[in-house]
Amino acid sequence: MTALAVTAVVMIAAFALAARRLLGLRFGRVRTLLGAVLAVMLAGPVSQVLVGSVARNQPGITPLWFLLLAFACALLGSMVFLVIAEALVPSGSVPGPVQAVGALRRRVGRSRRYLRITRILVRHGLGPYLRGRDPDLDAPSSRARLARSLRRALDEGGVTFVKLGQVLSTRGDLLPPEFLDELRLLQDQVEPAPWAEIERVVTGELGGPVEESFASFEREPLAAASIAQVHLARLRSGEEVVVKVQRPGIAPVVERDLDIVARLARTAERRTRWARGAGLGDLARGFAEALREELDFRVEAANMAAVAASSKDPAVRAPVPYPRLSGRRMLVMERLHGVPLAAGQDGLGAAEREEIARTLLHTLLEQILLNGVFHADPHPGNVMLLSDRSVALLDYGSVGRLDGALRAALQRLLAALDRADPAGVGDALLELVPRPDEIDERELERAIGRFMARHLIPGVAPDSRMFGDLFRMVFAHGLSVPPEVAAVFRALGTVEGTLTRLAPGFDIVREARDFAGRRLAPPGGREEIRTAVVQEAVRLLPLLRRLPRSVDRIVGAAESGRFSVNVRLFADPRDRRHVTGLLHQALLTVLAATAGLMAVLLLGSESGPRVTAAVTLYQLIGYNLLVVSAVLALRVLVAVFRERRED
């Protein structure tokens, strides 16, 4: 019995190894084992049929070749099983047993939460819109009623949906003003978590007791929100710090809700026109990425350091983080003494208010247009008025980043606005957004001209409607705003509201033009022009030195008939691998077809020496060639199925 078990194990291992090597791909252990077991189960009956018939009819004939043919047929059955399994259930699409149990538990929890969110939406009258009914947004009363229902549903849904509503409240390109006004009422304030739970988080992040790193730690929080709460503390070295601690257990809740948000967005996109037009799926994905970053306080610490390094104005400060004490769920930062801007602005004079407003605007424009790293949520609660009349920007969970190309396009956009040039604004705008296949540029230019005549003429004070009109104009012409650019307009729209409350009558357009004239204008003085020309000439000098020789060689080669162009095809290794794979599959297909054709011809031949009374040597070779043809064809098929899944 033991010898039989060992033989079976060896045979299973041999069949599994042979099937994987012949197909040229790796398969999961379970399906490979099942294929090998199937081969072992087939090997016995097939060998009995072939070898037994030979032994009975031709006792003097050795059954070796028929035994090999039987094992080849069994191996072929294992390979057919693997190919069919790969076609029906691609590798990696079904989790293993441990993963399956975990996935089942998560699915049960997600289903309960999904049903609860669905009940909340239905209770607030939003069920018809999930079933495919497009919202009636024609009448202001209908918009206000729907917006109120949406705000109440999001508020009842919890932290993730409150955050989603706050993000939507800044998207004037997607929602009418009634929705924006209603969603701005969402507040992110909750009851603080008990100290015992917060202490466990702090201890886990520090790797030891709180007393080892802090001389004192206030148990009562300074403020509490849905994701984190803030405590005052003092380090053993004496510095006063602010400690931001993530609420226990919030990460799994947010992850589960983000999955529900993505599913709801996909459902709405599939069933309603307004969701498809608004790109609700992309919005949900961008929101999920931003919220996951907000859950990792190490990202916020890096954002804080990056924005602080990019701001050169000493009148605008950022708290200094303590990376050594910070972690994924805890952020320790310098404590700045002051009051929120909304509470401290009453003690400021008109001139001080205007100067602070100008400083905030110029700092934000410098971060956006020159440095590419900017605070994306400068609302009054995130601006602190310090005791020395300087200001500080707080809460760096939302930070935007722009590459050089986007910064250059924004600079051209601002310069064109300063020149009142609708064509220049349109060109810069088309550089900022993905250009659609068809767009009426003339109509876009006229719409920009109307926008500028409405909001950017002398004597007209800009307000929050300006950014809403800009978003609606962009959306009306089929332009989708990338998340990076949307963050810029959101930050500008938010700071406009902050500055309006701080200094009523503050002309944000005039100040932006003044900033563009001072920081983005080309050199105008004679000395500046001369310096710029000299710098460009120094950079171009090596090229200019080589240019005559290069031109002379090209002209000489053309005159003598030796002019040629060297083009390297498939210089990219990925292209070479792709073409090599195609050639490999084509070669295997030809070989499989050739072997199959030869097998058919040999099987149809009755001539040749007899191996048995019914089978000639040619026919035996034909059977083996048929097996070879099937193996080659299966190898091509499994590669095709695997590539289709990866694409």
UniProtKB/TrEMBL annotation:
Membrane-crossing ranges are 34-52, 64-85, 582-603, 615-641
**Domain ABC1 atypical kinase-like as annotated: residue spans:** 186-424
- CDD domains (UniProt xref): ABC1_ADCK3-like (cd05121)
UniProt keyword list: Membrane, Transmembrane, Transmembrane helix, Ubiquinone
- The domain of life is Bacteria
- Any Pfam family hit: ABC1
Is Transmembrane given among the entry's keywords?
yes
Keyword Transport assigned to the entry: answer is: no
Q: What InterPro entries does this protein map onto?
A: ABC1_dom, Kinase-like_dom_sf, UbiB_kinase
In which family does this protein belong, per the annotation? Belongs to the protein kinase superfamily. ADCK protein kinase family.
Q: What is this protein called?
A: Ubiquinone biosynthesis protein UbiB
